[in-house]
Structures are given as C-alpha cells and as structure tokens.
Design goal:
- The complex is a heterotrimer.
- Chain A is α+β, with helices and mostly antiparallel strands.
- Chain A folds into two domains: 5-229, no CATH class; 241-364, no CATH class.
- Chain A is 33% helix and 24% strand.
- In chain B, 19% of the residues lie in helices and 33% in strands.
- In chain B, strands 11-10-9-8-12-13-16 form a seven-stranded mixed beta sheet, with helices on both faces. In chain B, strands 2-3-6-5-4-7 form a six-stranded antiparallel beta barrel. A two-stranded antiparallel sheet of chain B has the order 14-15.
- The radius of gyration of chain B is 18 Å and the shape is globular.
- The chains are: A alpha+beta, B alpha/beta, C alpha/beta.
- Strand 9 of chain A pairs parallel with strand 1 of chain B.
C-alpha cells in the first residue's frame, strides 16, 4: 500500500480549490440548525472546527471546543443518501393534447459532478448497499446512476464516535473502506491523505504532498483503534431472520409500540433504507402531469395499503417489519445486514428507541407463543 | 440488466362491464412497433397509469398466444380504480410492463393441473387456463375451482361454461352465500376438494385469491399429499415501482413485484398466513 | 360513494378535459378568521386559471354573493358556533354535491372550541351588559357534526396547494388523495434537522398530519399541531417525552390542546398510560 501523504491543515483549501477546478461542486460538513449537516462548502473555514457532538438516544447537542479539528464528530443526520437517492424527484412527465393523446418523457437532467468531503465508514458501507439495490439488481435506476457516476468521495476516518455508534460491531467502521477516492486521517496539525482510486491518485499527485512519517501514521492508526474500542453498543452478528421470526409474537413488539411514535424518523435517517412512494403532481390546468418519487417509510399506513386494506395497520407490525427486514431478510436480499452501525436511528428517534437494546431483549428471552 | 422505463401510451379499444363493480378494458399500445413486440407470460402484470392520477398494478388477463388482446380486469375499490372505471373506448392511458414472474407452465406439462381461485383472483389465472387448454394434450386432468363470497359476485359465466365443455376438465363453483338461482356448491371453495378426481401428489396447483382462502387451501393440499413445491400462489401487495426498488411489496425477504407475484409454497411457507407480514 | 358519483357531478370529458358545463364552486364562511379563504385569494395567476375551469358562484370575501344556486363543490371555512350557523350549514349542504371543509375550525372546531373547556356563559355575563342578545351556542362544533362532509382539508390555515390538488383531482373525476402521514415525513424529505432531538423543544410533528410542508420545523420552530392528528397516533409517548424535556403536566396538556382541543383522539395524554414507565 502506498504511504499516505501529509496535508498540513492550512493547505486544506488547496484540496477544495483543486476539486472545484476539476469541475466538482464541493459538499462538506457544516454546523447548521444545531447539527453537523452536509452543504456546499466554499472554503475550509466553513468546516465545523472545534465542533464535537454529545449525544444519546433521542438527543444530541453540539459542543464547541478550542480545537482546530474539523472532523471531531461522528456523523450528522444525513450524509450521502440524499445526494444519490433524492428525498423527492421527478421521474417522468406526460403531456395530454386536445385529442387526449398522451406523450411521456423521462425527466433527464445531467447533474453536476459532486465531491463530498468528510464521508464516514458507515456511509460508505451504506453506499455499497444502495449501489447494489439501485444499480446491480435486475433493474437499474437511471436517476440514481446518473448521480453516482458523477460522485467523488473524500472519506475521513472516524475518531470520535457518538455513544449511539456501533459500527465496530457490524464490521463497517470506524476505519473507512470501500469506494472512496481519497481518504483522510485527521491529526492535530493536518491530514494523512491516501488515495483509493485513479481519480484520487490524480488529485493526490496534484497536491504534491510529502510522504507522512511513520510516527504520524501510528498516531492516526491508534486514534481509529480507540474509536472502535470506546463503542459500547453491539448488535448480534449474522442473519437474525430465523431467530427474530421465531419471536414474531413476542410481547416486546407491543411494548416497543407503546413507545414508538410511528413517525418514520428512523427510516428517514437510516442510510440504507430505500423505500419510496410515487405520486403525480399536476398543475391546475390539467394539460400535463409530473410523476414523482419521494422517500417513504414502512412506518406509514400507505406503505402496506392494498385495495382498501392496510396490511400493517398496527405500529407493532410496522416496527417488526422494519427490524426483521433490517437485520433479517436483508441478509437474503443483499448478502449482509441492512445495518451499518451508524446509530442514527437511535440518536434521531424523538423518543430514543434503541435498536441494539430491542434486539438484545428479543434475542435473550425465550419464545412466547 | 434492464433500465427502469417510463410508460408507453395505450388506447382503450373495448370495455366490458362484468358486474356492478368489476369491469375489463382491452388495450392496444398506440405505437405499432411497441404493440407488436409486446409479449407477456401468464401471471405477469402491467403498471397502468391513469392520466394525472397515478399508476396501479393490474394482472394481465387474456391469452398469451393471442397478444393482440391485452386485457385487464379491475375491481373498483380505491380512488385510482374508480378513475379507471370512467374510461371508455378511445381513451388513452399509460402502460409499463410486463413485470414479474408468472405461472410454472413448464412444471405443469404432462401433469394434472388444479386451479383454485377466489373472488377476482380468477383474473390472473385466465391466461394460464387458456394456455393449458390450448395445449390440452400436453396436460393431464384439469380442474378449475372458483369461489365467491356471494353468488352475485360470480363473473365470466360464459368462460367457465366453455372451459367445462373441454375434455377431461372439471369446473366447480362455490359461493359462501348464494341466491336461489345458484347451481354450484354452497360454502367455501375448499369444500370442493373432495369432489376432485386429481393426482394431488404429482399434479400442480395454481392459486389466487384472498389470503385466508389460500392459507386454508394450501393446508388442505399439503394434507392431501401435495408437496410444497407443487402448490403455487399469486400474491398481491402494494406496488409502486414494479422493479423491486420502492420497497412496498416486501413480503419477508421477497419483493413480490420482482421475485413473484407467483411463488411456490415452498418459498413462502415460513411467511404464509402470518398477520401483518 | 358509488362509482358514478363523481361522473354525475363533473361532466368532464376525461379524454380532452373539456367540460360540458363549468362546475359551480362556492366558498362559505362560518365562525373563523378568514385565513383559509386566503388559500384562494393568494393564488395569483392560478386564480384566473381556476376561474376558467370552474364557475365561482359564491365567495363573499372575493365578491360573488349567491348562496342559493346549487354548486358542484362547496368549500366551508369556520366552525358552527351560533344557532344561525346550524341552519345555514344545512342549506349549504343541500346546495352542494361535494362538500369540503377547509381548515381547523371547520374540520375540528378549531381554536374557538377552546371555549368548550370553559364556562362561556359566565364569560359573557362578565363582559356584556346584556348577554341575552348574543346568539352563541354553549359548544363550538365541527362541520361534520352537523352535515355529511365529503373531504376534509386540515390546517390552520390550509394552503393553496391543498385546495388546488383537491380541485384538480375532482376535475379529473377522482377523489383527492388523503395523506395521513406525520409531519416528520415531510420534514425529513426537506432535510430539516429534528428540533426535538437537536434543540429539545416540544415539537408535535410526530403526531401531526402532514400537508403544511413542515413549515415550522423548516424555520427551526417546533410544530404546534395545526394540521391535526395523523394516523397511528401515540400522544401518550410523545407527551411523556415532553415531560422529559421539562414541561409540567399542564404544559403538556396545553401543548396538545391549542388548535384541536375539541378532538378526542388528539386529546392530551393523561391517566395511567401517561404515567406508565
């Protein structure tokens, strides 16, 4: 493996300029609305320097520290998912002429190339799953594909997991692996830069970095190891379908439903949830209509509606669907679990329901029939 | 790999009112090339788009050997089907399809074939019945069972009479509640099983209808010695994309739109009959 | 509703979208602030398009005044709070094929239903020298408690998008879509950061019906529930969360009561459920 280069912190703007000059719109983490969110980045000074996040189930607060570090936080409510699988987008439009004839046309716009900085291991793992779902199954989604082809990823190894994180137990982090173009390790005074693709190599070469000395590499490696060691939450390994399904009438499902708001927040922040609904948006004049798709959730009644009947009418059944899919049937669909250990569903659940705790209870107790 | 497509324009060429709440539309793709190259397998479905309103999955009725008749049968239940109910010949709609995996035609060859349907579940099996009867000599005995809640719900009398006239073909009808005119069986469709002269063990059963009916019928067939790989069901779920991506049709690990809608019992046994799955 | 219901009201040609006769529309006001009528008045150019498509027969705030002529659609704003209201709403219903309530007042009783929780007689006596001249019922009620309502548009106030979507669907001959999902779904599609989690404020989004475009959370504010109850409500769990954020029991109750105090299902959490750990 190539030795990482060292990018002094004050040269981070060189990377941003290089990306912009290479034709990319640069997206990165910023402090906004009380959280770390991904938005357009103008300069390195837009990054959340000295920001760390204190979090628990259903609650998080940003803490400002006197530190130069710009990536000392775990993850925000969203990262890559909304860039590729849009929360709402138009799929096709149809015109109707005076004779009632219809003409259909795909909504085709070529998106600008996007570079995302600060991507975490959990989000790369989730990206791999969405690539499988939208690009490698029987049908290919052209809308996702267009954006995926024009995406450049600058990953950053995670050194500050939240208390809700458990990527070490799912095997997806905190060290980034997979489809990044560049990988950064953040140190006090700068970054180790490793390239992961030909495009990344070009960028790295253009930065003309000096090779990082062993001591710095060792500091970075230790930080990531520590980030794994401090995680306390765990998921049981493997395909849990049979075990969870054997507990399909467990009283715990009703007990969770007493707390669950069926608001869908867990599914909306989950980087692997892929459900969407489709509907028409029609201007008042009625001469045309646009067919749109937008994020949906298995926690809505519309998700399981079929001619006058809602199959999963009760919250108990919706939560069971979500959990058994994520940790069970997902294995049979994608060859792995649908959980990448990002902990967002725990942190962003308004009432703090904890997937690791629910699974633990469901696995520990004997089957009740 | 196929790319997810957009609807093709289709014209309603004929409309038949089958009952006060059931109607059929025959469609023709407006583009001649699209129409000529369109092929479907019995048991597959199309996504039909009502202008400005939305898309719904509707199984293809008709004869795969005569693809000129692209027929769909609807029951008016929701807002979209009520809108479709207003369509008349000459009206234009959108069509994407065909989608899904259909009935096991190869596995049915040289074997007895049992068709069990309930309510409008009879629609998705019409093409398979046509196919089997068109190649009558390549199949064993054939039995067609249709159950309805009320005898007034029974549609396609002519079709069933025609099938009944075929050689070595039993047609049996059941109504849970029947008016005085009803000549068929009174009770559940599963009550007809004992009247069948079929080889359950080596034959193939194809079934479509309400969940409880299919659960009960599946159980009885197992008890009569049919293997779970010889009983096939067509399932219904909410479907919006039809290409296994929107997530609505998930049934355990299956995407019903892509992996089904037709499944062997063996593949879904672990899920079958469980409420809220 | 039978399948031809909408066809009878709207003699639209489904193919070309041309009407034999423009459907008549009335906008009626009962006890309310007039804010929902602004959903029409703020339409801008689309108001001209609306005028091209329908005949606005009665809309006092905009000019036309004719309560007698029968109409296809009657929009009703406001709650029933006087004896005269109870009689007028019956006439409105008789004159309309399809009645749509717009806004919290018409749909649930709205803000003024808060007086149902108080002794309004005592208030009148303390304010007015001759309270017997007031025509005020003891309780404020929603339109549906008096006449049949065909569609309810929630919100305080409703927005133009809801009104136009309803008109457009009816002109297409289908019922408008009803979306009972939570505000959270719209909120996350807009990529807003959850204000409960990140700010610790008592947002009612997780129990409130979507349709507003998550207007308040979009500006960092907590939702106060003006679009009324969503489906699959769990007010007990959310109320408990509010208590955890430091709200006193009375504050929790008032949080839920503000706009839709008259709705039992949106009633504030109390009793054993609320106390359960």
């Amino acid at each position: 493996m190539e030795r990482p280069g060292f990018l002094p912190r004050q040269r981070l703007d060189d990377l941003l300029v290089l990306l912009r000059d290479s034709g990319y719109r640069v997206i990165g983490p910023q402090l906004a609305e009380g959280a770390v969110v991904y938005r357009d980045i103008g300069a390195a000074s837009d990054l959340p320097a000295g920001v760390t996040v204190e979090s628990g189930p259903g609650s998080m607060r940003v803490i400002k520290q006197d530190s130069p570090r710009q990536f000392a936080w775990a993850n925000g409510p969203q990262a890559l998912k909304p860039r590729l699988f849009k929360p709402a987008e138009s799929l096709w439009q149809v015109q109707r002429d005076a004779q009632g004839r219809l003409s259909f046309a795909r909504c085709d716009e070529t998106p600008q190339a996007v570079a995302v900085i600060g991507v975490r291991a959990c989000d790369l793992a989730a990206l791999r799953i969405h690539d499988q779902h939208f690009l490698e199954s029987e049908y290919r989604d052209p809308y996702y594909a267009r954006r995926r082809e024009r995406l450049l990823l600058v990953a950053v190894n995670c050194t500050d997991p939240a208390t809700t994180c458990f990527c070490a137990s799912t095997g997806d982090g905190p060290a980034a692996s997979g489809d990044y173009d560049l990988l950064l390790d953040e140190l006090e005074d700068g970054f180790l830069v490793t390239s992961g693709s030909p495009e990344g190599q070009k960028l790295s070469a253009a930065l003309a970095l000096t090779p990082a000395p062993d001591a710095r590499c060792e500091v970075a490696r230790a930080a990531v190891e520590r980030a794994a060691a401090v995680q306390t939450r765990r998921l049981p390994p493997g395909d849990l379908f049979d075990r969870l399904f054997a507990h399909r009438d467990h009283p715990r499902w009703s007990e969770v439903a007493n707390r669950c708001l069926a608001c869908g927040n867990c599914t909306q922040v989950c980087p692997t949830c892929f459900c969407s609904r489709e509907r028409d948006e029609t201007p008042l004049d009625g001469a045309s209509s646009v067919h749109q798709r937008e994020w949906d959730s298995c926690f809505t009644e519309g998700h399981s509606y079929i001619h006058g009947l809602v199959i999963r009418a009760e919250t108990r059944q919706r939560y069971r669907q979500w959990l058994t899919h994520k940790l069970g049937s997902w294995h049979r669909q994608f060859g792995r679990s649908g959980c990448v250990g990002c902990g967002r569903c725990i942190l962003w659940c308004p009432v703090g329901i904890d997937i690791t705790e629910e699974v633990h209870v469901l696995m520990q107790e004997p089957v009740h029939d | 790999m196929t790319e997810r497509g957009i609807p093709m324009e289709a014209e309603v060429v004929a409309r038949v009112d089958e009952s006060p709440t059931i109607f059929s539309l025959s469609l023709k793709l407006v583009d001649g090339d699209q129409h000529d190259s369109y092929r479907f397998m019995p048991g597959q479905f199309n996504m039909l788009y009502l202008y400005g309103v939305g898309e719904i999955p509707i199984s293809i009725v008709g004869d795969p050997d005569q693809p000129d008749l692209l027929q769909h049968t609807f029951r008016t239940v929701g807002r979209v089907t009520r809108g479709f109910a207003r369509l008349q010949p000459g009206d234009r709609i959108g069509l994407r399809g065909p989608f899904g995996r259909g009935w096991p035609l190869e596995a049915a060859r040289n074997r007895d074939v049992l068709i069990v349907t309930g309510g409008l579940g009879c629609a998705p099996v019409v093409p398979v019945i046509n196919h089997v009867l068109n190649q009558r000599q390549q199949h064993g005995r054939v039995a067609i069972l249709q159950g309805v809640k009320h005898s007034d719900d029974f549609i396609w009398r002519g079709r069933y009479e025609q099938w009944d006239a075929e050689p070595d073909t039993q047609v049996l009808l059941a109504a849970d509640v029947a008016g005085p005119e009803w000549r068929g069986y009174r009770g559940r469709v599963t009550g007809l099983f004992e009247k069948l002269e079929l080889d359950f063990v080596n034959g193939i059963t194809m079934m479509c209808g309400p969940g409880p009916m299919m659960t009960a019928a599946g159980q009885q067939l197992l008890e009569r010695g049919a293997g779970p790989d010889r009983i096939w069901f067509s399932l219904e779920r909410n479907m919006q994309c039809a290409v296994g991506q929107c997530g609505h049709c998930q049934y355990g690990e299956k995407f019903v739109c892509r992996d089904g809608p037709v499944f062997p019992y063996a593949d879904i046994q672990h899920l079958f009959g469980v409420r809220g799955i | 509703m039978d399948r031809y219901f909408l066809t009878q009201i709207f003699s639209t040609c489904l193919v070309c979208g041309v009407y034999d006769m423009k459907p008549g529309v009335a906008v009626h006001k009962f006890s309310s602030c007039d804010g929902c009528q602004l959903a029409f008045l703020n339409l801008g150019e689309e108001l001209l398009e609306l005028d091209r498509l329908v005949e606005i027969v009665h809309f006092a705030e905009a000019g036309p005044f004719d309560e007698q002529t029968p109409v296809a659609i009657a929009f009703v704003e406001g709650s029933i709070s006087t004896q005269a209201d109870t009689e007028r709403i019956r006439r409105v219903r008789e004159q309309a094929d399809f009645l749509i309530t717009i806004g919290a007042c018409a749909t649930s009783g709205g803000v003024q239903a808060l007086r149902n929780l108080a002794d309004s007689g005592a208030w009148h006596a303390s304010i007015y020298p001759e309270p017997e001249y007031l025509d005020s019922l003891d309780n404020v009620t929603a339109i549906r408690e008096h006449v049949k309502v065909d569609l309810e548009l929630w919100g305080c106030p409703v927005n133009s998008r809801q009104v136009l979507a309803a008109v457009r669907a009816l002109l297409f001959g289908v019922l408008p879509e009803t979306d009972r999902d939570k505000v959270c779904m719209e909120c996350k599609r807009q990529q807003n950061v959850c204000v409960i989690v990140a700010q610790g404020v008592p947002c009612l989004g997780p129990v409130t019906r979507s349709g507003c475009g998550s207007l308040c959370p979009r500006f960092g504010r907590d939702c106060y529930g003006c679009y009324g109850p969503a489906e699959a409500l769990n007010t007990a769990s959310l109320g408990k969360r509010f208590a955890g954020l430091g709200l006193l029991p009375e504050q929790v109750v008032n949080r839920f009561r503000a706009i839709h105090s008259h709705l039992e299902e949106f009633a504030p959490p109390q009793g054993p459920d609320y106390d359960r750990e």
